[in-house]
Amino acid sequence: MRVLTPATSSDARSPRAGDIDHQMMQHAIMLAHQAAERDEVPVGAVVYRGDQIISEGFNLRECDSDPTAHAEVIAVRAAAKRLGEWRLTDCTLAVTLEPCPMCAGALVNARLGRLVYGASDPKAGAVRTLYTLCNDSRLNHSVEVVGGVCAYECGRLLKDFFKQKRAQRQAARRK
Amino acid sequence: MRVLTPATSSDARSPRAGDIDHQMMQHAIMLAHQAAERDEVPVGAVVYRGDQIISEGFNLRECDSDPTAHAEVIAVRAAAKRLGEWRLTDCTLAVTLEPCPMCAGALVNARLGRLVYGASDPKAGAVRTLYTLCNDSRLNHSVEVVGGVCAYECGRLLKDFFKQKRAQRQAARRK
After folding, report:
1. pTM higher than 0.90 for the full model?
2. How far does chain B reach from its first CA to its final CA, in angstroms?
3. Beta strands in chain B (DSSP E)
4. B68 and A110: CB-CB below 8 Å?
5. Which of A93, A124, B36, B46 is least enclosed by beta carbons within 10 angstroms?
6. DSSP 8-state secondary structure symbol assigned to residue B58
7. Is A119 helix (H, G, I), strand (E, B) or coil?
8. E strand or H helix at A145, and its extent?
9. pLDDT digits (tens, 9 = 90+) for B54-91
10. Is residue A144 classed as helix, strand or coil in its secondary structure?
11. Cα–Cα dist B33/B22, whole Å
């Protein structure tokens, strides 16, 4: 008996992560650690073209008092500035967490070529979880998406951060 | 016979635009003209609290080579910077065009209190047209929305801009 299996990330027709994508995600994870060191939610992002890093970013919402200072927006703005061009059609962005509506919208507005993300975001994920903003045919651009790259490591980073935060709050209450 | 009429913008239960909102929209329209003078798509935005303007913005995507430089994002970032606080819970933003997914997401991320917008955007409107991002109970904040304020004037500004652009392109082709 032949058993039909659903398409998975190893489906040859699906976009897949290459070695460069994994290397860039490791770089994004390193950037997420830099956010955590500043007591920011640890999310990091890298924009690259081929094997060349164009720009980097990590979450700085609290430090900069800026609600738009998510890793992706910072990295996209820096890439556009560096290239002198707001269209990032031949670039890939790797980010440790599935982008929120603002960031997914920014990637569409930037005409980003590819998005590689790590952990899914059940609360605000706007690429596959709550919305599919990067692949809405009504909008004027669609981004190739590869999700779940180094997902465990990216998710662990966030879980550890929030666990530590809860412990700090409980310790403060006990005082 | 009693005739039930559907709720309209004059429904007392619906959020409504006050005099201040109309004044601020006129200010946003003036800012949109400043964008047009720089050959940018004419969209303007103002953040205010009571009758006090906190910040302003107009579209600068081309001038700044920045895909995130929409009027709303510029105004929100400037307001947060001025107030030293990324939460804009007690602020209203007036913008001449219905926000796109990026901007609607930014308003949710900024915990904006109220949004007042002018013309609807059939191509990318993410507040009422394609999405209702500002009022999605799955996200961690909901924004009070008043749409259609000075809508004709706001829409006219955009139509005139694109009409002029088309005429310029046709003239260039004839040369």
Report:
1. yes
2. 67
3. 44-49, 52-58, 92-97, 114-119, 144-146
4. yes
5. B36
6. E
7. strand
8. strand A144-146
9. 999 999 999 999 999 999 999 999 999 999 999 999 99
10. strand
11. 17
- Quick check: A93 contacting B, CB < 8 Å? no
Å from A63 to nearest chain B CA?
Answer: 10
B66–chain A Cβ distance below 8 A for any pair = yes
Phi-psi region of B42 (alpha: psi -120 to 50; beta: other; left: phi over 0): beta
- Tell me the shortest Cα–Cα distance from B64 to chain A, in angstroms: 8
pLDDT score of B15? 80
B72 is catalytic: yes
- Give the helix ranges, DSSP H, for A55-113: 61-64, 71-83, 101-109
Give CA–CA dist B166/B155, Å, rounded: 17
Q: Which is catalytic among the residues B72, B85, B144, B153?
A: B72
What is the ipTM metric for this complex?
0.91
Cβ A123 vs Cβ A155: under 8 Å? no
B92 Rama class: left (phi>0) / alpha (psi -120 to 50) / beta: beta
Range B127-136, long-range pairs (CB < 8 A, 24+ positions)? B127/B98, B127/B99, B128/B98, B129/B98, B130/A136, B130/A138, B130/A139, B130/B101, B131/A131, B131/B101, B131/B104, B133/A101, B133/B101, B133/B104, B133/B105, B133/B108, B134/B99, B134/B104, B134/B107, B134/B108, B136/A130, B136/B108
